[in-house]
Amino acid sequence: MLNFYSSPEINFRKGNEIKIAGDQIRDPVPIGNGDIRVLPLAFESFGVRSMATFVETDDIKIVIDPGSALGPRFHLSPHEREYIALARSRRTILEAARRAEILTVSHYHFDHYVPNFEDWVWLWSSPEIAEDLYRGKTILAKDINSNINASQRKRGYMFQKLNSRTAREIKIADGRSFTFGQTILQFSKPVAHGSPGTELGYLLMLTIRTPRCCLIHASDVQGPIDDETLRMILMEKPDAAIVGGPPIYLAGYKIDESSLTAARNNMVRLVERVPLTVVDHHLLRSLEYRDYLEPVFREAEKRKHRLLTASELVGLEPQLLEARRKELHEREPVAKDWYNRLKKGELKEELIKK
Ligand SMILES: [Fe+2]
Q1: What domains can you pick out in the chain, each with its CATH number?
Q2: Centroid of ligand 1 to alpha carbon of 344 (angstroms)
């Protein structure tokens, strides 16, 4: 049972090797002709809310969306195992960021960057962690002055204010491209966080391109639901796409059936054209994600294309800890006092070692 629930721990070793829980060694995974190599750092399939991804080419190393978080679900506090996964994800992201020159922030939701305030209950964040993460880095981030909702504008403002001196530089990335040797980082114009017109605001997709290889990271596009977003992804002709799936757990509550159908139809069209699609994030908050993806899997199989979760890309079974929260609390109850100590930050040393 321990194996089943334990989430991967990734440590960078000499060269490109990476150690994952259970002493398995992993390299970043080559995509296309191998000019771009990618390593998922934290995702729902690793037990936390995140799409943090390490990417390297011969020219640069970057971490996309270097945050992770836990969220409210089933009116239950996250289980101890979720906190172990969260602490691990923070360690893994910090370790990956140490190797990278560039960090990117697609939008200012807390599962996509680490804020500067102290919070051990949902975010595993503190001023010290933020400094450790951003110090000396070039940060390419969402503009806070246009195509942004009020809450993200406030967060983005604090992010820039508190980190601009620690970071090497923070640049607005919306619609811009940045060239490093033969590698181009192309940020999309702002696209919808799910449905067009949603109050959740906008985010930037990132295309990483070398002369013969292309990867796109599309964070919270939720499928995508929006046809225009799909068109933009396909226009890049990527060898691989890392895409946030739709939140089917919010069906009939915060998202309507027609949006979920649109997302699925667009994913069918995505895997029809893209050789490797990694789908994760909101969709992997539900154990039924494979049923929902059934027609998408069928299309991928027909085209001999691959459709995987982030964990499966590195050969690990998805660990859907949030989706299993009820079951975890039933099987392994967590004492009330444990949460009091957690809140005060008394468990941070202990959990980060697990
Ligand atoms: Fe997100």
Answers
A1: 2-353 (3.60.15.10)
A2: 26
